[in-house]
Amino acid sequence: MRLQEQDHDVFRVLSAERRRQREGVELIPSENYVSEAVLDAMGSIFTNKYSEGYPGRRYYGGNENVDDVERLAQDRAKRLFGVPHANVQPYSGSPANLAVYVATCQSGETIMGQNLPDGGHLTHGWKVSVTGTYYRSVPYHVKPDGYIDVDEVGRLAREHKPKLIWCGATAYVRELPFEKIAAVADAVGAFFAADIAHVAGLVLAGVHTSPVPYAHIVTTTTHKTLRGPRGAMILVTEKGLQRDPDLAEKIDRAIFPGLQGGPHDHTTAGIAVALGEAMQSGFKDYGRQIVANAKTLAHGLIERGFTLVTGGTDNHMMLIDLTPGGPGRGVFLQEALDRVGITVNKNTIPGEPSSAFYPSGIRLGTPAATTRGMRQPEMERIAAWIALVADAIKDYQLPTDQPSRGAVLRDFRRAIQENRHLEAVRADVREFCLKFPVAGT
Ligand SMILES: Cc1ncc(COP(=O)(O)O)c(C=O)c1O
After folding, report:
1. Does ligand 1 come within 6 angstroms of the Cβ of 93?
2. Is 238 one of the catalytic residues?
3. Tens digits of per-residue pLDDT, 287-299?
4. Structural domains of the chain, ranges and CATH numbers in brackets
């Protein structure tokens, strides 16, 4: 029986999510829309199988087809990125990164990564992540201009002699300085891991530097600019194997049996399909268009009076700094944009004057909108809508005394529901979006 007939409750919610994705502009830079083919693989009977181990070395029988699909995914990843080894089993980006620690460090040893409020990821040593409690984390920062402080990375590395240094970010709008951080890591004998979760698709399209010549290990999620299912990969480079000939084996053992059990074979199939799509020439056009769209959107926002961290973008995302209107206002703009069907996320900005829960920035990006076929003229319209919405809520400030925040937010939520200008923008956004279909909706 199909879902529609069998389970009305789940089907109703799924239908609502289909409508939300179809009728809204998705600007969260870590999200994307997968193809029908990836959806087919993800919804396939590969989900029924258990396959602990690796191709040709499984603990269960009946894995001949899973072996084939996993080898396809590995071979495509190796060919696309130009690396000798690929592990496609990590359940997602965070366990992939954890496996890098398990393969290269003992708990208590020193590691370095970009500070989370400066744009780094939780798994690069932030204090509430196990990567910041099981290891001694020495974070590095961005300078007041928003660019990574490479001099500080060198200074801290010489002082603390880390075992592992990360370069990669979740909210960083400029080219990642792989070569410079590799030089620091090489000088102090550290492993260098590049986390390209956000920019993997841009690397493949040739619009972001590849870390492969510089890093020992490269991790990436598969569901952001790579436009595959939710999952991850760990790549070991030639440089990594020269540093430690057992590195690939150590990574594989860190994933299984170190951290995980059976791989999600339907995801592996989906990754193979997405990598097949990335091999087609159109993918390079897609990557180039993501960046062209981001630059147009950034320019459109600046023209309308917004302040952007670093003054623009090199990649697929940008960070609006809302502090000129007061600290902690990200929540207001995120919710007001949600109201009109434009989805973004509130985010800390470098030197955040408020808190992670009430941050002063908005992070937005173009990978998903670009997948729908939106181009520069559409980015102009989106920038104009964002400006209109920001203007409609410009008088709202986050109270400094915490107890009164609840009441102000309740007031604000009621006001944006009742605002007729926002209602009219919602209708325009819906009509606009319906011209750009989303696979699976
Ligand atoms: C740079 C970076 N690394 C790792 C991850 C973790 O990925 P996941 O959410 O799949 O665990 C993310 C997710 O946003 C990320 O941005």
Report:
1. yes
2. no
3. 999 999 999 999 9
4. 49-278 (3.40.640.10), 282-433 (3.90.1150.10)
